[in-house]
Write a structure and sequence with these properties.
13% of the residues lie in helices and 45% in strands. It is mainly beta and 568 residues long. The chain has a domain of 156 residues: 2-Layer Sandwich (60s Ribosomal Protein L30, Chain: A), CATH 3.30.1330.60. α2 runs antiparallel to α4. The relative contact order is 0.08.
């Protein structure tokens, strides 16, 4: 057991500049279930910690199991916990709920004033909604649910500033309450919608005669709600997909159970207004694997993709980048150990890269947040070697999954650019010099005489080129001083004399450079990089000072824009 001194919790930090890995230890089990980025770029996480109070033995007789658990929970049990870490991984907020009974947080939603909605439940079956200010002050606390045993699985932020609590409830025994008339068997999907002030807008149950559980939800562009759940009967477990109106009225319900026993894990809305869900299924060796299922508002299945690993795997959380790529986190279990992992897939759900973390006895990722700069923050749990109980774990990765600050001094940036643009180099569209000059050399990329507006061919190329360039440069941002966009011209300008030719070409080359710079900066798929780009981008017009010579001037190739990366 971990060493315990009074109620003191102590922190073990392992910091590497911007990326970091932090474990937060307590005397018993400590787990994180959700993570978000604050508006000031801090990272906030929620979960639970177990603490212990010395109780007095009593011979009291308890009337129910819940009453007993409530009494035991006042001595030792799970307590909802919120932590906030700054950019240097220092904890600047540590909030305990400290109820008299077990309670754990499962979900965290940011509010417009940089505060928090926290969703969870207590051991005796009550659901819990907590509103905290940005400083950690409790603004209100709501207990809700039925008189039966309820459990929350997810709290989903809505566009009106409110939240939707998603979970399950045991069958209602009262037919007098119209909210529960659909609850007719075992557990039922249980939803409650709150406004931004924490007032209940509606609460409803949805179920069949079998066991139904609400797992996750997402809001569509039209305000309707998509619900992900599990439906179990005996040894069969399928997926429930349901669409509801804003008032919770059922529009359609679809059951998906083509693979036997299925486990629902996560549901997100994509930028194209379709939806993606992470589902677990069992292979022929009885190992859980992941199925990513994409569907639309009309319940049409658009795409399926299997994520397989050695042993079993679970993808606990998925997020979409502005580029359409998917980042997912979870864990893989073999007969040797359980280890956390992160994977990135392209917009066709094909794997781009994945990374496993095997430096603990046991580890799992539960949730991720894509940060303003494209980095990845992840929350979960880990068990240190020679320990039996878990610690909270927060890790921040570069967007490529690395954990080290990257330096340009060893030529790795040049190598990275060559690798990134290998297709463009092979097609003779660009060249990259060791001094980090990038030259656009394809004939269709040159400008016509006197013109500076981008052609449709130039625009298509730059859409692809710019995104690859910025994403390749970003891991090296600490060492990049500037990204220069240099405009050039040929030397002619009608019959004007040399001073006027030069000045007119200065103006023209500057316009060419500015057009390309603006094209980069205003690319909506690069908006997460805009703050950084505003510190490094510059445009310069060089007139015909660097025109291309081959015995005589090559006027066509002189009318160009090139890039120069300047390192510190």
């Amino acid at each position: 057991m971990k060493r315990f001194l009074s109620l003191l919790f102590f922190f073990t930090l392992s910091l590497i500049a911007k990326p970091y890995s932090v474990t937060i230890s307590g005397p018993f089990e400590d787990v994180l279930f959700d993570i978000t980025e604050d508006y000031n770029k801090d990272i906030s996480v929620v979960g639970f910690s177990q603490n212990y109070k010395q109780g007095t033995h009593t011979d009291k007789t308890y009337r129910s199991a819940f009453e007993y658990l409530d009494a035991v929970g006042s001595e030792r049990g799970e307590q909802l916990r919120l932590l906030r870490l700054d950019e240097n991984a220092q904890i600047n907020l540590d909030f305990f709920n400290n109820l008299s009974r077990f309670n754990r947080a499962v979900s965290l939603v940011k509010t417009s004033d940089n505060g928090y909605f926290i969703g969870g439940y207590t051991q005796n079956g009550e659901l819990l909604l907590l509103k905290l200010s940005s400083g950690g002050t409790v603004e209100f606390q709501r207990f809700f649910g039925t008189k039966n045993y309820d459990r929350m699985n997810r709290l989903v932020g809505l566009r009106d500033g409110g939240v939707l609590a998603v979970g399950s409830s045991m069958t209602s025994r009262s037919r007098k309450d119209s909210r529960y008339t659909q609850g007719i068997g075992l557990n039922d999907i249980y939803l409650t919608r709150f406004d931004k002030l924490g007032n209940v807008k509606w609460t409803k149950k949805y179920g069949t005669r079998v066991d139904d559980r609400g797992i996750d939800a997402a809001e569509a562009f039209d305000g309707t709600l998509l619900i992900l759940g599990n439906s179990s009967e005996g040894e069969t477990r399928g997926i429930t997909l349901m669409r509801l109106s804003e008032e919770g009225d059922k529009i359609w319900l679809h059951r998906y159970n083509s693979r036997g026993v299925l486990n629902a894990h996560r549901l997100i809305r994509l930028r194209d207004n379709h939806f993606l869900t992470s589902i677990g299924y069992y292979n022929k060796d009885s190992k859980e694997q992941t199925l990513l299922l994409k569907f639309d508002l009309q319940k049409n299945i658009l795409q399926e993709r299997n994520i397989t690993t050695q042993g079993s795997n679970v993808l606990s959380d998925i997020k979409e980048r502005s580029s359409g790529a998917i980042v997912a986190v979870g864990h893989r279990a073999t007969h040797l150990k359980t280890e956390a992992f992160v994977i990135t897939l392209d917009n066709n759900l094909k794997s781009m890269w994945q990374r496993f973390f095997d430096n603990f006895e046991r580890s799992q990722f539960h949730a991720l947040s894509l940060l303003h700069n494209g980095d990845i923050a992840i929350a979960g749990e880990c068990t240190q070697k020679a320990q039996k109980t878990s610690d909270m774990w927060v890790i921040k990765l570069n967007r490529d999954g690395s954990t080290e600050r990257i330096s340009t001094q060893d030529g790795s940036l040049y190598s990275a650019l060559r690798k990134t643009f290998k297709d463009e180099i092979k097609a003779k569209e660009i060249t990259i010099d060791k001094d980090l000059n990038i030259k656009l050399i394809a004939q269709e990329l040159y400008f016509k005489a006197g013109e500076y507006k981008l052609t449709s061919i130039q625009a298509v190329f730059l859409h692809r080129f710019n995104r690859k360039l910025i994403q390749a440069l970003y891991p090296y941002k600490e060492d990049i001083k500037a990204l220069h966009v240099n405009g050039h011209t040929s030397s002619e300008w009608g019959n004007l004399n040399q001073p006027k030719r030069y000045l007119n070409n200065v103006k023209l080359s500057s316009k060419r450079a500015f057009e390309v710079l603006a094209f980069i900066y205003q690319d909506h798929q690069l908006h997460t990089y805009q703050e950084w780009l505003s510190t490094i981008l510059s445009s310069d017009g060089h007139s015909y000072a660097e025109h291309i010579m081959k015995n005589t001037e090559d006027k066509e190739k002189s009318r160009r824009v090139n890039f120069k990366i300047e390192v510190k």
